[in-house]
Write a structure and sequence with these properties.
Helix content of chain A: under 10%
Number of helices of chain A: 0
Strand content of chain B: over 45%
Number of strands of chain A: 11
Oligomer: heterodimer
Number of strands of chain B: 11
Number of helices of chain B: 0
Order of helices and strands of chain A: EEEEEEEEEEE
Shape of chain B: globular
Helix content of chain B: under 10%
Radius of gyration of chain A: 14 Å
Strand content of chain A: over 45%
Order of helices and strands of chain B: EEEEEEEEEEE
Radius of gyration of chain B: 13 Å
Largest interface: A-B, 24 and 25 residues
Shape of chain A: globular
Structural class of chain B: mainly beta
Distance between the termini of chain B: 37 Å
Distance between the termini of chain A: 37 Å
Chain lengths: 112, 112
């Protein structure tokens, strides 16, 4: 089983749509969880951390289910500028070094 | 806003040559990392560095790779004898403990 698994997409959605991405991780001892965004040939940028209680940042909502080892990201009212690859990221066990394990990413294309 | 700075943005080299990739992490960060991303693939961990020594390294980080923090600001990745398969985007990242990583804009390494 891959350490972090994501549906690669692409997800093609119209502007204004709501889209959800899912991610599973294999190491139950992982302690921190993030969603990063990566534009083509650019660096990953931190979108938001993911907490067990769920958290929201504007149009973005992240959820974590530790029992199922499952993370989600919901984007409401999609904008053209949301088009990017969304990376699910978890810390490896032994988090003292904060080593991050990346998923392969889910490509989102928001259409006008 | 403070940022991680990487130079050069592009590096072209001949197989077998040594290359040094340079990074200036965010000034108050304590943990430093190198990641790489081969075109079309996921972001892969290479090495983490804390308190002036390597804290963890991946299988990719073999004897051909080394890292240094020669002064209080720079963090370098050296590849001693480059191979064709070393061609990738190399990202430097830094963080305070417990926070998400912040990435530089990367160095695209092309080995011919």
């Amino acid at each position: 089983r891959k350490e972090v698994e994501q549906d690669p997409g692409p997800f093609n959605v119209p502007e204004g749509a709501t889209v959800a991405f899912n991610c599973t991780y294999s190491n139950s001892a992982s302690q921190s969880f993030f969603w990063y965004r990566q534009d083509c040939r650019k660096e990953p940028k931190l979108l938001m951390s993911v907490y067990s209680s769920g958290n929201e940042d504007g149009r973005f909502t992240a959820q974590l289910n530790r029992a199922s080892q499952y993370i989600s990201l919901l984007i409401r009212d999609s904008k053209l500028s949301d088009s990017a690859t969304y990376l699910c990221v978890v810390t490896a066990y032994g988090g003292a070094t904060n080593k991050l394990i990346f998923g392969t990413g889910t490509l989102l294309a928001v259409q006008p | 806003e403070p940022e991680v700075t990487q130079t050069p943005s592009h590096q072209v080299t001949q197989m077998g040559q040594e290359v040094i990739l340079r990074c200036v992490p965010i000034s108050n960060h304590l943990y430093f990392y190198w990641y790489r991303q081969i075109l079309g693939q996921k972001v892969e961990f290479l090495v983490s560095f804390y308190n002036n020594e390597i804290s963890e390294k991946s299988e990719i980080f073999d004897d051909q790779f080394s890292v240094e923090r020669p002064d209080g600001s720079n963090f370098t990745l050296k590849i001693r004898s480059t191979k064709l398969e070393d061609s990738a985007m190399y990202f430097c990242a830094s963080t305070l403990q417990g926070k998400g990583l912040f990435f530089g804009s990367g160095t695209q390494l092309s080995v011919l």
